[in-house]
Amino acid sequence: MGAALVRQLCAQGYSVAAVARRRELLDALAEDAGGGPGRVLAYAHDVNSIDEIPGIFESIVHDLGGLDFYVYAAGVMPGVGPEEYDTEKDLAMVDVNLGGAIAWTNPVARYFHSQRAGTIVGIGSIAGDRGRKGAPVYGATKAALATYLESLRNRLAERAVRVVTIKPGMIETPMTEHLDKLVMPISAEKAAKDILKVSRGRLWNERHVPLRWLGVSMIIRSIPSFLFRRTNI
Ligand SMILES: NC(=O)c1ccc[n+]([C@@H]2O[C@H](COP(=O)([O-])OP(=O)(O)OC[C@H]3O[C@@H](n4cnc5c(N)ncnc54)[C@H](OP(=O)(O)O)[C@@H]3O)[C@@H](O)[C@H]2O)c1
User: Fold this and answer.
1) Is the residue at 33 inside a domain?
2) Is the separation of the CB atoms in 56 and 43 below 8 Å?
3) What's the 51 CA to ligand 1 centre distance in angstroms?
4) What is the 224 CA–ligand 1 centroid distance (Å)?
């Protein structure tokens, strides 16, 4: 989804900084998307290297000549077996999905706070709506991310900074390749288009993508615990 967002922003004429670990994919993205009116600057970085973040952020703002739109889209969701309680694997998810999100979003929030403008977008998940048997820690990271973003939204509202939480349904990306079946899937390109539309509008602070997942989410949230634990959703 991150790559699709970069491609679409670039096609619309924006200059975009793309951050991820795989340098060769970043360079290919920069070359591919750079054919459009915008340009892509690539920064190879592992969000676990928290010490690097302030320096890279400063370089991005310098190289782009400012910043007004930011998306944290990094995430990992390894498969977890029904009898698996693997702390190392679980904490690796916490580090990328939550720790990395906080470490990157804090300096962005400080910057937008000072300039009294900007939009912060975080990619949460409907997986954070309930404690699912199949994804105890992935869901927990997304629930915590949504709460963190809500706090930033409330903090930054008076500085005219917008904070948006996107809750995608099932999107066809490498993250979901290992799943047997996707329910109501959409492409990363369609998801990115929706994410940009929602983030630029004023109507939603938290939005399901596509919107039909809102109804599903409301039903799932309303299932009593004693029944929910008998399901595999
Ligand atoms: N796909 C879905 O159905 C779905 C549903 C709900 C929410 N989401 C969320 O949407 C976001 C995007 O997911 P996706 O579906 O686009 O997954 P994806 O295709 O697997 O992309 C994940 C991205 O995160 C980057 N990343 C992973 N670990 C990183 C690290 N340690 N440091 C820096 N970058 C890292 C990856 O780049 P490198 O590997 O090059 O670092 C990649 O660009 C995630 O937060 C995910 O949890 C996805």
Assistant:
1) no
2) yes
3) 21
4) 31
